[in-house]
Fold each of these.
Amino acid sequence: MKKEIHIFFTALMFFTRIPCPKWVNHDPTYLQKSSKYFPLVGSIVGGIGAFFFYVAQLIFSIEISLLISMASTIFITAGFHEDGFADVCDGFGGGWTKEKILMIMKDSRLGTYGVIGLILLLGIKFTALREMNSTQISIAIISAHALSRFMATTLLFTHSYVQDIEKSKIKPSAQSMTITQLSIAGIFGILPLLLFQNVWVFLIVIPAYISKMYLGQKFTKWIGGQTGDCAGAVQQLSEVVIYLSLVALWKFI
């Protein structure tokens, strides 16, 4: 049990700014096994976002509350996945060979494609959430952060890594993953959907996974697999798809 707690805290420390016990470090052994807890970390991040939204909307408008919520999740994760999404936009937007794409993605500078991508991404997130009522927003934030991180985790399982592990943002977690670890991640990723108390909501898993398959196909075609930035892009795109799917679903149920 203590070992599993250590593994969980390793994932939490790696993906967030949340303080962890001093005995937790970036041990490669624990980091490699921490992928099963990525969606659980997502639930925590989403819970923080939902909390800030709930408190803010007691005072401010829904629009301001949503911006505060989005800012809180970006702050708590240091924009880890947003950075990956922007790098993918720049790399695949400006590169036409595997070498060029990977080189651009490793560049710390933000390009035109990345800026445009982030503006559209955040704008769609905000607009989609604004279509929901307050209760739906809180649950959607928690569920989307968990489920989207499960989608990113499946990318690590289905696609091989194409860059030097030592240069990777996710390092050992990209090396290997067992079906058991993936199953545990799936439970943590899908479980928050129960908060909606509506079985039809589970249908949103389909478009979320389709978005992952779409990006995965592009990654395989152009660079032969995935990198840490690719996983971040999958998380961000599937999060948006989840919000849009919920908005569309509630028009029929």
Amino acid sequence: MATHGTDSVAGRIADAVDGLTDLWTLAAAEASVRLSPHQLRALHALEAEPGANLTMLADRLDAGLPTVSRLCDRLEAAGLLLRDAAPHTRREIQLSLTAHGRDVLAEVAELRARALTKVVHAMAPDERAALERGLRAFASAQRYGPAAEGG
């Protein structure tokens, strides 16, 4: 049955994602500032939405306000984020990355890219080409749905 083959492929993709997650976590651990995956997600969210408030960040992280507030306390203490009064209302706190926070994110991105490059470099050229085609097809199917029914 086609579903069994699809389930098998989905399982291999899940295994690959686990491997990629491990690779990225290990690479991030080599950064000058050690951050948990949750802290990194918060920094990435603030990089994507500068000036976000605690509620927006909590929504983005799918976490409670007290948890996100404590997370921001730690990031602020590490010099990675700033809390300022929002320009439109002083009752609201606006969050933004510091220059150090942006530098740490850039460092983590570089370490992760290097680690991934090593793995991809170890693949044969035809395997790299097949991986690239597969990733493009995956992204397209995720974005737009399968190209044809049953395929």
